[in-house]
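User: I'm curious what two different proteins look like when written out as structure tokens. Can you demonstrate?

Assistant: Sure. I'll show them one after the other, since each token string lines up with its own sequence. Here's the first protein:
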Amino acid sequence: MSNPTAVSRNASQRRLLLLATGTLGGVGLVGTMVPFVASMAPSQAARSRGAPVQVNLDTAAPGSLVTIAWRGKPVWILHRTWDMLDRLGRHDRLLADPLSREAQQPTYARNATRALRPEFFVAIGLCTHLGCVPTYRPEVGAADLGEDWPGGFFCPCHGSKFDLAGRVFRAVPAPLNLEIPPYEYQSETRLVVGQDLNGPA
């Protein structure tokens, strides 16, 4: 016959061993998961690449194009002259989306100049066809672009054309106007790309 006290003690020891083993296994699992989950968080370098970028507009002479990097993409700041602005409304018949109805810009840039301030055009410098970088071609009636060319951006990869407000021409591969990132002015000469009144993008 077995001793009931010994059986009870053995059962108690088994429960204690199971509890200790389960607890130790749980602690080990959590200890293993913490570094794994932490490695999935973006690094400091990745976070800084997505941070808003400040631009000093004093460096942009009228007619010049300044390129900065934001989130790994080229962002253009074009200081348009009054002549460039005057030309914007004259070629709407050549454009696929002259009124910017497609959501390629924040609501504050859904206007004739696609900008907060008419003289400064801010856009992501990637063609909306396959992501090539168009070239800045401000000259009117360039021989290789046709006499109707009002000045703008030309994508050499597949021939897409955009005017000086980043609006896409008809009958080109690009389906949409150039994308406008969120941005705001902190002063007359300081622009911040990547944040607007709604906060950082």
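Here's a second, unrelated protein for contrast:
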Amino acid sequence: MTNKLKYAILTCAGFFTINHAFSQALDSTVYLQVKELQETVRKAYAPDKRTKLFAFTKTDVAKNDYLIETTEPAAKTAFEQQFKNIPATVAINLLPEQNLGNKLIGIVHLSVGNMRTKPDNAAEMASQVLMGTQVDLLQKDHGEYRIRTPEGYIAWLPTSSVTAMTKEEAAQWNSQPKIIYTAEFGKSLSEPHAQSQRVSDLVYGDILVLTGEKNNYFEVSYPDKRKAYIKKEEALSLKKWVDSRNPTADNLISSAKSMLGLPYLWGGTSVKGVDCSGFTKTAYFMNGYVIPRDASQQVLAGESVDILDAEGHFDPEKALKNLKPADLLFFAAGKNTNPNARVTHVALYIGNGTFIHAAGSVRINSMLKDAANYDDFQTRTVVAAKRYLGSNDPQIQKVQNNPYYSIK
């Protein structure tokens, strides 16, 4: 090979290397521009991914091709208005997805539907939703619906747990009288007698359509058209139940104590098992309220109660003076190493320094050092207290005022 040919080949190779590196740098710069804009819009319109979405689902940096999905029309508009001068292709998928057709409403038809963070049975459990609860259907993937619950929580639920409906079908369901199951656990039966076959299990809070009465049984209908019978002593008219709710501190504490000994279950919000915030959420639901799902969301609702000293440390004397029964106590496991640590736990204050919470199981502990049931770790990590009773915060909503519930 001549020296001239070698030089030409090396020159071309060098040019290709430089050009490829320049192209990669350009792609990376464009990606950073797209990412920065996505993050700016996300913070403004969807700061909490548990309730609002604005996230990448595809990022092809080499081709400058991106896909974002969102639940927020305003976020889509804001991004598109600011994106015009960025040399990339960005598609925005606004949920609910069009391929769901006109069946965008779901009614849960299992006693408890298990919601997960991804459309995968092996994924982390995020929450639960009770039978008869209306949800929004946003997306379908791998036999799962991405749903939104009455408190706004977004996660994945198996399609086998929910009946998809059109607006007209849901309106028909909502127009009918309902019963709510008020025993802790039980079952519905195929005939109005105890020896008949089980149709399904039931837990406190399950809601079904009332179609008639026979002897000592309610005749009911499921969202998926199954028929069954429930003992009258185990259920109430949904309207009577709502009208009878009296959310006093004593009633909230009584509801909380009714769950003593229940096992801790990550993501649990039913009497089958509860996590810490699922426990407080369930206690408030038993008293006719829909509240935020997670502890780090619950701490943002209600009225603040002063329980900290000037340096931000828990002050037991101030807490005993200012706390009232049924207030919520919030804890941050990382508080001792990070003063701004995220809230990770919640408890319901009973009074006299004691609180009830789900930690291993639902149990009662004290913040007083000389008490036999003193909980040192939780007491050291208290970061806030909130009062829900008497608050006008729209995040603390009566069941009858929540649009996902139809009280008939």
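A detail about the second structure: The chain is about 25% helix and 30% strand.
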